[in-house]
From TrEMBL:
Principal subcellular localization: membrane
Pfam families: MFS_1 (PF07690)
Residues in Major facilitator superfamily (MFS) profile domain copies: 22-432
Keywords: Membrane, Transmembrane, Transmembrane helix
Ranges that cross the membrane: 20-35, 87-115, 147-168, 174-195, 247-265, 285-309, 321-338, 344-369, 381-400, 406-427
Lineage of the species this protein comes from: Bacteria, Pseudomonadati, Pseudomonadota, Betaproteobacteria, Burkholderiales
Protein name per its UniProtKB record: MFS transporter
CDD domains given in the database record: MFS_ExuT_GudP_like
Subcellular location: Membrane
Membrane topology note: Multi-pass membrane protein
């Protein structure tokens, strides 16, 4: 938007800031989303003892979420292009939280596994919805900051609430880990339905704010467009978003990026307790340090990216630079293999997760590259490929580790971070929207 246009808008009517409330709502949703992804890793050591699991079966239960989460990404993305975020997000939140709640009453490995599969399937539309909402509510020059802010919810929530969940388990048993997080999500699902609206229907957003968003590249009428064009599923559309090299660059990069994330969401507490000899309460607090580092990284990423945009950098440079730097920093995790000092182990893991946070504005590229009418489908494919790591990482680590050594798993995750950086350097070319 030009300076003159912005000045004229301000002279007539100062734009409201309702979009920041939407950003906070997405942040809270992501906190709950990731608590329900990671709560199993908190309970894993206790579950392993109660159900007599070996490392291979532990890897299977930790990967269960990923099987259905990845499988439902494309159908979930298709739904996002057709169902209002107000309805779809509320329904998904309540249903996956109910499945989480009932995990607290599971009496066998099989029941726990099935419920975990259900959580993965029902969470599938979450990030494509986030991408759709931020594309609707934010101009391009604020979008990376918005994405960075709500993405930080996955880290800050875990940083502060992981010790709480560890305390709950220590005093009340692993059952309460699932009951508490499930109830939280059900309540928030109801509140989302009551509060969320599209920009033109949101009472707190005035005409000046809507114009600011629209002139800055936000697609404020996306909900109306999708109601008018509810086309059936098309293999041609899927072929389009599966055939572009630059999209495959971000797909592959996301797989590598989320491999680090899924190490922290699944095996990390076990690594600290079993392979580094920490007691469970101490490990609960130390586990929060890398999440705090990732929180700082993701906030730096969005602010840096949008700052570069405002200073005249190309969208490609502004979006890709933090991602590539972050992935390269994530390779520092391998340093944990060369020390027996607990502070140094936590330092290397925190530095690696800071890099993961710095790289985590990848959705800003999906928002910029995807065809407008296929935002949900593109996001679904992106999240499908990326979250194949939620299946691969827990299982591969389960096979790589031995009773005495976790080092091969650290090498595996570090190598994937390097591959992700190369993917963004070599495959993603000029950043511009793909026409359908």
């Amino acid at each position: 938007m030009s300076t003159a246009t912005h000045a004229a808008l301000q002279g007539a009517q100062r734009p409201t800031r309702s979009r920041y409330l939407i950003m906070v709502m997405l942040f809270i949703t992501v906190v709950i989303n990731y608590l329900d992804r990671s709560n199993l890793s908190i309970a894993a050591p206790a579950l392993k003892d109660e159900f007599g699991l070996d490392t291979v079966h532990e890897g299977l239960i930790l990967s269960a979420f990923g099987w259905t989460y990845a499988a439902m990404q494309i159908p979930g993305g298709w739904l996002v292009d057709r169902v209002s975020p107000r309805v779809l997000y509320a329904a998904a939140l309540i249903l996956w939280s109910a499945a989480t709640f009932f995990m607290g009453f599971a009496g066998s490995f099989v029941i726990l596994f099935v419920l975990r599969l259900a959580v993965g399937a029902l969470e599938a539309p979450a990030y494509p919805i986030n991408n759709r909402v931020v594309t609707t509510w934010f101009p391009e020059r604020e979008r990376a900051t918005a994405i960075g802010f709500y993405t930080s919810g996955q880290f800050v929530g875990l940083a502060f609430l992981t010790p709480v969940l560890a305390w709950l388990q220590h005093h009340y048993g692993w059952h309460m880990v699932f009951v508490s997080t499930g109830l939280l999500g059900i309540v928030w699902g109801v509140l989302w339905f009551m509060i969320y609206r599209e920009p033109r229907q949101f009472k707190g957003a005035n005409a000046a704010e809507i114009e600011l968003i629209q002139q800055g590249g936000g697609v404020v009428d996306l909900d109306r467009r999708t109601r008018e064009k509810k086309a059936p599923f098309s293999w041609n559309d899927l072929g389009l978003v599966m055939s572009r090299r630059k999209l495959w660059g971000v797909y592959l990069g996301q797989f590598c990026l989320t491999s680090t994330l899924w190490f922290f969401l699944t095996w990390f507490p076990t690594y600290l307790v079993k392979y580094r000899g920490m007691d469970f309460i101490k490990s609960g607090f130390l586990a929060s340090v890398p999440f705090l580092a990732a929180f700082i990284g993701v906030l730096c990423s969005g602010v840096l990216s949008d700052f570069l945009i405002r200073r005249g950098a190309t969208v490609g440079l502004a979006r890709k630079l933090p991602i590539i730097l972050g992935l390269l920093i994530s390779t520092s995790m391998i340093g944990a293999n060369f020390t027996d000092s607990t502070p140094w182990v936590i330092f290397f893991l925190a530095l690696a997760f800071f890099g993961n946070g710095l790289a985590s504005i990848t959705w800003s590229l999906v928002s910029t590259l995807a065809p407008v009418r296929l935002l949900g489908l593109t996001g679904g494919v992106f999240n499908f490929v990326g979250n194949l790591s939620s299946i691969c990482t827990p299982i591969v680590i389960g096979f790589l580790v031995t009773k005495d050594s976790f080092a091969p798993a650290i090498v595996y995750v570090s190598s994937l971070a390097l591959l992700g950086a190369l993917s963004y350097i070599l495959l993603v070319g000029k950043v511009e929207r793909i026409e359908a």
